[in-house]
Design brief:
seven-stranded parallel beta sheet; Rossmann fold; single chain
């Protein structure tokens, strides 16, 4: 049985990841500011704001002291505030950076200290394809996701071979956060530019995390795995995506 820590596991990708690892027999701890609406066996909620490094350190220490090890960490907690670059406020931007980027750095650092001492461990995180393009109305969010990819490379360089480090960059995923910010028409427009013709389900991203934490993926480190249904493959998706989707009857 592995000891797994997932931040932001009360909903969306984090919840799906926690459920996937728990279903495999692992002991999972959910670091989130609120509990999940649905209880999953072998998943324990620890009320934690990942922007508060002292709270994160306390939670990680509790998990480690309870089991003597931490095997896998998935730094997944993230927020977004849909605003144009001329309307972003300093308070909102700081909160996005504190949660999305510094929240990964703080959690990874706290867990890595135990992993390095033990000589093994896996650090994973949720980045985004938004790190690779100018995506309107999410400038601060996009910047934090690019920062996660940079953290991934740096942690891998410094902590290998003891600690494996990988980030996953999803494209459009049908999470509560996405559903809260997008109308049905906007969701259809996104689907139209994705070659796969749809959003991903959170469970599909969770499967990727589970694989990356497996023995079969040990040689993968310092890398970013993009899971986007082909959305970022090239100009085909942006210029001709709508026409292709309409031709194939996907709308």
């Amino acid at each position: 049985m592995r000891i797994v820590v997932v931040s932001g596991a009360s909903s969306g990708i984090g919840f799906a990841a926690a459920e996937r690892f728990a279903r495999a027999g692992d002991r999972v701890y959910n670091l989130d500011v609120k509990p999940a609406e649905t209880t999953v066996e072998n998943v324990t909620w620890l009320a934690t704001d990942v922007a508060d490094w002292s709270a994160v350190e306390q939670a990680v220490t509790h998990v480690h002291d309870s089991h003597g090890q931490i095997d896998v960490v998935i730094a997944n907690a993230g927020i977004s505030i849909r605003r144009g670059v001329l309307d972003i406020t300093v308070d909102d931007a700081r909160r996005v950076v504190d949660v999305n980027l510094l929240g990964v750095l703080g959690l990874w650092q706290a867990a890595a200290r135990h992993m390095v001492h033990r000589g093994e461990g896996v650090l994973l995180a949720t980045a985004s394809v938004n790190a690779h393009r100018g995506f309107p109305y999410y400038a601060d969010y996009n910047a934090t996701k690019a920062g996660i990819a940079a953290l991934c490379r740096t942690f891998a360089m410094e902590l290998s071979p003891a600690v494996q480090v990988v980030c996953v960059s999803p494209g459009a995923v049908l999470t509560p956060m996405q559903l809260a910010e997008y109308t049905p028409q906007m969701l259809d427009e996104v689907n139209a530019r994705i070659p796969a013709g749809r959003h991903a389900q959170p469970e599909e991203i969770a499967e990727a995390f589970h694989y990356l934490a497996s023995a079969q993926a040990r040689f993968i480190t310092g890398q970013e795995l993009i899971i986007d249904g082909g959305e970022t493959t090239g100009s085909l998706t942006s210029e001709f995506g709508t026409a292709i989707s309409a031709k194939q009857g996907r709308r």
